[in-house]
Amino acid sequence: MNLCVLGAQWGDEGKGKIVDLLTPHFNVVARYQGGHNAGHTVYVGGRKFVLHLIPSGILHPGVICLIGNGVVVDPRALFAEVDELAGMGFDVRGRLFVSDKAHLILPYHRELDILSEARRGDRKIGTTSRGIGPAYEDKIGRRGVRVGDLRDTSADGPLVGAIRENVDARNRLVGNSEMKWQDVLADLRTAWVRLEPFVTDVSLYLSRAMAAGQRVMFEGAQGTLLDIDHGTYPYVTSSNAIAGGACTGLGIGPKTIGAVLGVTKAYTTRVGEGPLPTELLGEMGERLRESGQEYGASTGRPRRCGWYDAVAVRYAVRINGLDALALTKLDVLDGIEALDICTGYRCGTDVLTEMPGDTAQLALCEPIYETLPGWREPTRGITRYMDLNANARAYVRRLEEVTGVPAAIVSTGSERDHTIIRDDSVAAAWFR
Ligand code: IMP
């Protein structure tokens, strides 16, 4: 059965670890959206790997990793990651392929991202400054440059025309310096020499792989509440991070997605601007940040931390059709006396049990909490559910009740083997 793994909160849920853990049971891992704004951290044997663009399955030799058309690719970021992996002993040649329909992030996109944020002032999104939004803007505006366009760099070809127009537009917007389209083109010619062996028709590759009985994992980046359509707009990323994004971002039919696994932390974090109803601004927020090492894997920015927001996760269950949750970082809650779970929002005189579609309204919502006792006994590194203390089990059980889906995987630490796989759950089939 093919499996889609995605973020069920505001990103940084620990998808990297879960994808890495499941990878030995799959033949192909395919990333379907986002770009190098993502930071998927995987710890293996005490070594830390942070993957941004390359699927988290790459650390398993023999597994094919695909970057779909829905991803925006900065060639420099891609090569930096390939080189870093090579330095750590992982050769990606013949195992990593990029869609010829994926759009490129070019130097002017990064500049326009920073400029756009500066112009928004107080209304800034808090982007990663990687050029993600402007690259998707060009894609939707039908002036983007795709990986496959680099095949033809002739003077009268479509690539040169697009680069000239885009750089002209950039020069009109960024008044203080002149960018030369010839320089951008020269860099792209150089990039193509290295990129070409990686380029393929990802949709066709997947179709053939699945027809041959291979198992595929579809890997999302960011999270449901950062989705361009269903997230807390405009404080979102510019792509579809939800399960539906796997279809458009890879060129597969919806029926090929066998099951959907949503990853959530045992609490909530967000990096960047926008509403976060359960945010803890005082000591407890600081405590979660320090014990959870909640600093952005891509940008190093401190993450905003808060209690588990079951309203937001229930919404993710609905939007993605989640079959199960992977609950990460349970061990970060060790030693906290009492744990709050947000089960509804108070908004003026209204009580909401569903996520409001209006972001301004969400910003006014106060969480309604129920409180469970915490635990003193460490959960770190526990691998069997029955070995968790009673209060930790009660906490997990309550999260399952309020979200309506089973916690099939519970992560109790950063290493691969710091994980509980519930044999009695839907997840057992994914590990066969
Ligand atoms: P962008 O994707 O760089 O345009 O940023 C848009 C919003 O998404 C900002 O709030 C970022 O902090 C957030 N964001 C983007 N990528 C990630 C991620 O991988 N994890 C968490 N937040 C992210």
What can you see in these coordinates?
The protein is α/β, with parallel strands linked by helices and 432 residues long. The protein has 2 domains: 317 residues, Adenylosuccinate Synthetase, Chain A, domain 3, CATH 3.90.170; 95 residues, Adenylosuccinate Synthetase, subunit A, domain 2 (Orthogonal Bundle). It is 31% helix and 20% strand. It contains 13 helices and 20 strands. The strands form 5 sheets. The chain has a 10-stranded mixed sheet, sandwiched between helices. Strands 14, 16, 17 and 18 form a 4-stranded mixed sheet that branches. Strand 16 and strand 17 form a beta hairpin. Helix 5 crosses helix 6. It is globular. The termini are close together. The model has no long low-confidence stretch (mean pLDDT 96). Bound molecules: inosinic acid (IMP).
Brief summary:
It is built from 13 helices and 20 strands. With 432 residues, it is α/β, with parallel strands linked by helices.
CATH class of the largest domain: Alpha Beta
Distinct small molecules: inosinic acid
Q: What count of domains describes the coordinates? A: 2
Q: How big is the Rg?
A: 22 Å
| Shape-level CATH architecture of the largest domain | Alpha-Beta Complex
Which of globular, elongated, flat, extended, rod-shaped describes the shape? globular
Largest sheet: 10 strands, mixed
Strand element count: 20
Question: Mean pLDDT across all residues, rounded?
Answer: 96
- Walk across the major sheet and give the strand order: 9-7-5-2-10-1-11-15-19-20
CATH fold-type name of the largest domain: Adenylosuccinate Synthetase, Chain A, domain 3
In quaternary terms, these chains amount to single chain
Strand content: 15-25%
Write out the CATH superfamily name of the largest domain.
Adenylosuccinate Synthetase, subunit A, domain 3
* Overall SS class: alpha/beta
| Helix content estimate | 25-40%
End-to-end separation in angstroms reads 10 Å
Task: Detail the poorly predicted runs.
Answer: none
Question: What is the count of DSSP helices, taking H or I runs of 4+ residues?
Answer: 13
